[in-house]
Design a protein that fits this description.
With about 375 residues, the chain is α/β, with parallel strands linked by helices. It contains 15 helices and eleven strands.
């Protein structure tokens, strides 16, 4: 009898019938067996069995309109509280719409097929099938501009500090309104999670910062500090443990998170090999340019991902609004709460360590000339 092929040693595909009351984590483990369901199961296990170990630092990127869809309150905040997210890079739009929830404003489920001319006439704004009053934008803008008048914002800072300070105001509004914990920025403030924006001017928050600048007031964003702070977080993570990236969507936040390793290796010239764990949820494709430079194998060529750990890289080609609730349920069911790293409080120390390593390297190089 012929020897059984090594390719036929995987679990047999013969699941039992799904029963009433099945739990999300059990569905993933037992019934997500093939195609992108299989990749989601692999991602869930990578996340819980390796990425969320105590010695791993987990960076998360947020792209797409996730917070207006309610994923901030339902998924991101619980994961922050559980210690699953150590640092975050987000589009400014996600953080702007996140503020609506902390301010008690109302967003509504609707139809993506509504006549937008009618919506415009009635003062209703649409994000696909999410509807809300135009006044939500105006009132949120007013909130940001009022806060930006405060003395603490009349200076220069990186986006992590900017969002931390804004998070304090949003946390105060949450508490005053009795809303519970519904805001990502407020939760990040409470639990010491630094939140960066890769394109500070590309959102309504940035637009309000720009408006204040016309009056000679408000914050100035130091984007170079963001580049160096995020690199410092990864550099420190690799010195004492491992670094993992959890990429939701793509775009600028994805690239900003992955460029930390080229910043360390290529630009600063420090010895490093790339992120250890890579999990991405995306509906983009590499052959059309939407995913170029960010598939795990392609990222290896840039030094973004450690080639020795390429098996610990999973890409789920799936809508984040479907994947993230399932992964959240899986993490909260299968993993223990991790101690909070509170990386926001360590930014200065981490940046000083990276700076010293770089300057020491520059001195050595200069002596060789």
């Amino acid at each position: 009898m012929a020897k059984t092929s090594k390719f036929l040693t995987g679990a047999r595909i013969l699941p039992p019938p799904i029963a009433a009351g099945a739990k999300a984590a059990d569905l993933i483990d037992t019934f997500f067996l093939a195609y992108n369901a299989g990749r989601l199961r692999e991602g869930a296990r990578l996340l819980t069995q390796k990425m969320l170990l105590p010695d791993v630092t987990v960076g998360v990127s947020l792209t797409g309109a996730l917070t207006p869809a309610g994923l901030g309150a339902s998924c991101i905040v619980p994961l922050i509280k559980a210690g699953a997210f150590d640092w975050i890079i987000s589009t400014g739009a996600n953080l702007y719409h996140d503020a609506h929830f902390a301010l008690g404003m109302r967003l509504h489920a609707g139809s993506p097929f509504t006549d937008d001319r009618v919506l415009r006439d009635e003062g209703v704004v649409r994000i696909y099938d999410i509807l809300f009053s135009y006044d939500v934008l105006l009132d949120t803008d007013t909130f940001f501009r009022k806060v930006l008048e405060a003395d603490e914002f009349q200076t220069e800072m990186g986006t992590a500090e900017f969002h931390y300070r804004m998070g304090r105001y949003l946390a105060e509004r949450e508490k005053a309104l009795g809303l519970g914990e519904v805001s990502v920025l407020a939760a990040a403030y409470r639990y010491g999670v630094p939140v960066y924006t890769s394109s500070p001017g590309d959102s309504s928050i940035g637009m309000n910062v720009a408006a204040m600048a016309l009056k000679g007031k408000g914050v100035k964003i130091d984007v170079s500090r963001d580049v160096n702070e995020t690199a410092a977080i990864v550099y420190a993570a690799k010195k004492k443990g491992k670094s993992a990236v959890f990429i939701l969507g793509g775009g600028s936040p994805k690239n900003f998170m992955l460029q930390t390793e080229p910043q360390i290796q290529e630009v600063l010239g420090l010895d490093e090999k790339g992120h250890d764990y890579f999990l991405q949820v995306t509906d983009a494709r590499p052959d059309t340019g939407g995913l170029s430079g960010a598939t795990p194998s392609e990222a290896v060529s840039w030094g973004k991902v450690d080639p020795d750990n390429l098996p610990d890289a999973v890409v789920c080609y799936l809508d984040t609004t479907i994947a993230l609730p399932l992964l959240t349920a899986y993490v909260l069911t299968r993993s223990k709460k991790r101690p909070l790293k509170r990386l926001y409080d360590q930014r200065e120390t981490l940046l000083a360590s990276l700076t010293k390593a770089y300057l020491d390297r520059e001195k050595k190089r200069a002596k060789k000339k």
